[in-house]
Design goal:
The protein has 14 helices and 16 strands. The strands form five sheets. Strands 7, 8, 9, 10, 11, 12, 13 and 16 form an eight-stranded mixed beta sheet that branches. It has a two-stranded antiparallel ribbon with strand order 1-2. The chain has a two-stranded antiparallel ribbon with strand order 3-4.
Length: about 450
């Protein structure tokens, strides 16, 4: 049987650096490793002396993927030899093996073939996950094979189209890449400071990661399931199929005023602390009041809410909270309400663009909203159309011996103005009713 570049059969291996491929004879596919419930890689079970099944290194008939002392030492020696050959840092290679739970074993071609997918599709998946092309270096593990097999299996079963599977790989890769960068920059870097003089960070990092890895893994899965449940609930509650993708949402931008000038005046560490405080405070306020933080852009945050009143409350809370913090610059917020397209956790469309433009023209420590959001607040009774209407409603209620309507917000129409790319808009200034604080 011959091998082709689709990864089926055996035979020609693509050579690195554009060299002609070489022909190889039949190569037996390596036996795939199993993954136990803890995510550890385990070999095939074999019959024990009493007929029970045992793992390759497990005592007393237990199946285990963890290495015993000798196996760990042998693996470490192999990795040290590989690092010398490849010029890589031995500790980096050991940490990679610890985190991935398996040693490097396959070239990309071999991994694709073992997973039963074409090299072209495997490359699309890896690039979508955010990983660089590595030619034909032996850098992949059983976990990489298993991931390819799972994605391809979803496509073969008709549960996902190929394009959707690539999108799943891309969205997961982008999200987890940012998470991993944050954990290394802000978390592990601080924790791996040598606790005693004479100790190197190298001596601290490996055992620390070994202890943290299972706990962080469990926590990440828990948070993901929680977020998936919340997102699924929102989709199920949508009125129709179109609303699942193109939905009416309130979208808000909050922007620190004069941030560019601050970058020239402040030290890098101070600037980093300010941005982190702004992002943390904004994320907490958005989540606490029922909104969704879409993304942070250093001096700006983007959030959304299904309800106009929730979006308005978040905006005013942001202004009030930042104003009470002397270390924070002034803030301005713009909100628009309308149809929004959602893709991979982000939002797009004219409504988003309008919210951004409103933010750029908003006064300091103030909130500007578009006409659609103002109408929605009036419709739901969160704000009066005008102070005159509010006075009439209060007088009518008093005459009837009823409680007057209670409005949370006040709206003041501003001058119409042209907005680049969106024509003429009439913004409204949003405030708390009678200036009351919550």
């Amino acid at each position: 049987m011959t091998v082709d570049d689709t990864g089926s059969g055996t035979g020609a291996y693509p050579a690195p650096d554009g060299e002609p491929g070489r022909t190889a004879g039949p190569v037996a596919d390596p036996a795939p490793a199993r993954v136990d419930t803890n995510g550890d890689m385990a070999g095939e079970k074999t019959a024990g002396p009493s007929g029970e099944t045992t793992g390759p290194t497990g005592p007393s008939g237990e199946t285990t993927g963890r290495m015993d002392g000798q196996s760990r030492l042998d693996a470490q020696n192999r990795m040290d030899e590989e690092s010398v050959d490849s010029g890589e840092d031995p500790l980096a290679l050991r940490l990679e093996t610890l985190i991935l739970g398996a040693e490097r074993r396959y070239t990309p071609f071999q991994a694709a073939r073992s997973a039963g997918v074409s090299m072209e599709l495997a490359s699309r998946f890896w690039r979508a996950m955010g990983f660089a092309d590595i030619g034909q270096a032996k850098a992949l593990t059983e976990a990489d094979v298993l991931a390819l097999r799972r994605l391809a299996g979803l496509v073969e079963a008709g549960l996902l189209s190929e394009a959707m599977a690539v999108q799943v790989a891309r969205s997961t890769g982008q999200t987890t890449a940012r998470l991993a960068e944050w954990q290394i920059d802000s978390f592990l870097e601080g924790l791996t400071e040598p606790p005693e003089p004479g100790m190197t960070r190298t001596e601290v990092t490996y055992p620390l990661i070994e202890l943290l890895l299972p706990e962080l893994e469990e926590f990440i899965v828990y948070v993901w399931r929680r977020q998936l449940a919340a997102a699924t609930g929102r989709v199920v509650q949508a009125g129709d199929d179109e609303e699942m993708v193109d939905r009416r949402l309130a979208v808000g931008f909050a922007d620190l005023v004069g941030f560019t000038r601050l970058t020239r005046r402040m030290e890098e560490e101070e600037l980093g602390e300010l941005v982190e405080a702004f992002e943390t405070t904004s994320a907490d306020l958005v989540a606490a009041h029922g909104g969704r933080l879409i993304k942070t852009l250093g001096d700006e945050v983007l959030y959304s809410a299904d309800d106009a009143g929730i979006a308005a409350e978040i905006a005013l809370r942001l202004i009030e909270t930042m104003a009470n913090d002397e270390t924070m610059p002034e803030l301005r917020v713009g909100i628009a309400f309308g149809t929004v397209t959602t893709r991979m956790g982000d939002v797009f469309g004219t409504t988003v663009n309008l919210a951004s433009r409103l933010t750029s023209i908003a006064p300091r420590d103030a909130v500007l909203v578009d006409g659609a959001l103002a109408e929605e607040l009036i419709r739901t009774g969160d704000a009066p159309a005008s102070e005159a209407e509010a006075a009439e409603a209060a007088a009518a209620a008093e005459k009837e011996g009823e409680e007057p309507p209670v409005y949370r917000f006040a709206l003041q129409p501003m001058w119409q103005r042209p907005v680049r790319g969106l024509g003429v808009v009439e913004p409204w200034l949003l405030a708390r009713r009678n200036g009351d604080q919550p």
